[in-house]
Amino acid sequence: MRTLDIGKLRQEREQLTKRIEQLDTLLAAVDAFDGTAPKKAAGRPKGRGHMSAAGRAAIVKAQKERWKRFKAQQKG
Q1: The pTM of the whole model exceeds 0.85
Q2: Which helix (H) or strand (E) holds 14?
Q3: Higher-confidence residue: 59 or 4?
Q4: CA-to-CA separations, 76 to 18, 62, 71, in angstroms, rounded
Q5: What's the Cα-to-Cα distance from 28 to each of 3, 23, 46, 47, rounded to whole Å?
Q6: What are phi and psi of 69, to 5 degrees?
Q7: What is the pLDDT of residues 3-40, one digit of tens each?
Q8: How far is it, in rounded angstroms, from Cα 51 to Cα 57?
Q9: Which of 10, 16, 31, 67 could form a disulfide with 37 if both were Cys (CB 3.0 to 4.6 A apart)?
Q10: What residue segments make up the domains of the chain, in order of their start?
Q11: Which residues, other chains included, contact 51 with Cβ-Cβ below 8 Å and sequence gap of 6+?
């Protein structure tokens, strides 16, 4: 049984990803040239989720700590 060289696999994946991006760019250019480019939907992009209550609480707590340090420095 052959052993897999992880480095080689990652390198090949990176090369394939770059090639796919090149092909996507080429197809987009061709679509734009011949007028068949898909129209973008107006409004808010899909895929953005809402922040959880726990995430929001963590951000609020961190901001309060920053303000606390800032005010302490201002007092001298």
Answers
A1: no
A2: helix 6-34
A3: 59
A4: 54, 22, 9
A5: 39, 8, 21, 22
A6: -65, -40
A7: 678 888 899 999 999 999 999 988 888 877 776 656 66
A8: 10
A9: 31
A10: 1-37
A11: 59
